[in-house]
Design brief:
Mean pLDDT: 94
Order of helices and strands: HEEHHEHEHEHEHEHEHHEHHEH
Distance between the termini: 53 Å
Low-confidence stretches: none
Shape: globular
Strand content: 5-15%
Number of strands: 10
Radius of gyration: 18 Å
Structural class: alpha/beta
Oligomer: single chain
Largest sheet: 6 strands, mixed
Helix content: 40-55%
Length: 328
């Protein structure tokens, strides 16, 4: 039965922050920087853009926070058979990193849409890769398991411990910018936004929280329109591999339905955001991170102090070069 009252407590997030902060060689506190990026036509004139740079995590993405927070709480018996996850790339990196740190075996089911940069990084961390179609990976996400894999399954987002770990990024934002007017992050399964929203609203209820989705995969917007979790029938793969699932899981709906909205951006807007961010801020953002930046630049999260979470920077260099060269 779905827990309609499900929530992530700020105390769980603070506990995760204390534990992660005490780890040596684990997740790091990432910078929040104000940047001068050109706003798009129609954006509020008072828009003040900040970037939360999760690209500086050891794995180049925020998922290390949630993965470490889960693995630190597993028992010896749970770790004995190894651990595994399913991922488009960044959750796999996080779980592989946490497994190596704990000295346990790790395997990952990775979608065949994952970029080579993420696959190579997973291999460097010593995890075994099991390649699957995106459809099989999404079924595994929905079913919380697969007969093809063995060991303790760490869900890439639908796990309160993982979400609490992700939420530590929200605590950091509030410590650095307590009067933030809005925060925007891309959404795949909702694990980042759920954690950030729980942290932020526990400290400043006025801060608005928005999701950003690519036009090719926007199930959260469809679910908001329907008033319930629904699949996104027009889903198609794109370079925004870390955001935009095929549906909103029923179990995640109680956590994401209270967000302030989902901003859908075009692939051209994402590509332009990646290019401008590299040119003006010297930051490499992968597709999912580009979604958040594009949503803020477009003004659809409103004016004032608005934070875009740059959730990861794991993008193939050839792909990055082609994207930043689109308008040159």
């Amino acid at each position: 039965m779905i827990d309609q009252q499900r929530h992530i407590s700020i105390n769980a997030i603070r506990d995760a922050a204390a534990a992660l902060g005490a780890m040596r060689g684990g997740a790091v506190r990432t910078p929040l920087v104000r940047v001068e990026l050109p706003a798009c036509a129609g954006a509020p004139r008072d828009l003040d853009l900040y970037l939360k740079l999760e690209i500086f995590q050891p794995i180049g993405a925020f998922k290390i926070r949630g993965a470490l927070n889960v693995v630190r709480q597993l028992t010896g018996d749970q770790l004995a058979g190894g651990i595994w996850t399913v991922s488009a790339g960044n959750a796999a990196l996080g779980v592989a990193f946490a497994a190596r740190r704990a000295g346990v075996r790790c395997s990952v089911m990775v979608a065949d849409t994952a970029p080579q940069a993420k696959l190579a990084a997973i291999e460097r961390l010593g995890a075994a890769i099991v390649t699957a179609s995106y459809d099989e990976c999404w079924r595994t996400v929905e079913q919380h398991g697969s007969d093809r894999m063995s060991g303790y399954f760490i869900h890439p987002f639908d796990d309160d411990r993982f979400i609490a770990g992700n939420g530590t990024a929200g605590l950091e934002i509030m410590e650095d910018l307590p009067d933030a007017d809005a925060i925007v992050a891309s959404v795949g399964g909702g694990g980042l936004l759920s954690g950030v929203a729980a942290a932020v609203r526990g400290l400043n209820a006025k801060t608005r929280i928005f999701a950003a989705e690519p036009e090719t995969a926007a199930p959260l917007r469809a679910s908001f329109d329907a008033g319930r979790p629904v699949p996104f029938n027009g889903w198609r793969a794109s370079f925004v591999d870390g955001a935009g699932g095929k549906s909103v899981l029923d179990t995640m709906w109680p956590l994401v339905r209270h967000l302030d909205g989902s901003i859908v951006v075009s692939l051209d807007e994402v590509a332009d955001a990646i290019r401008v961010t590299a040119e003006r801020a010297h930051v490499i953002a992968e597709g999912a991170a580009g979604c958040a930046i594009a949503a803020v630049r477009g003004g659809r999260a409103g004016g004032g102090k608005v934070v875009a979470i740059v959730s990861g920077g794991n993008i193939d260099l050839d792909r990055f070069a082609s994207l930043v060269g689109i308008r040159q």
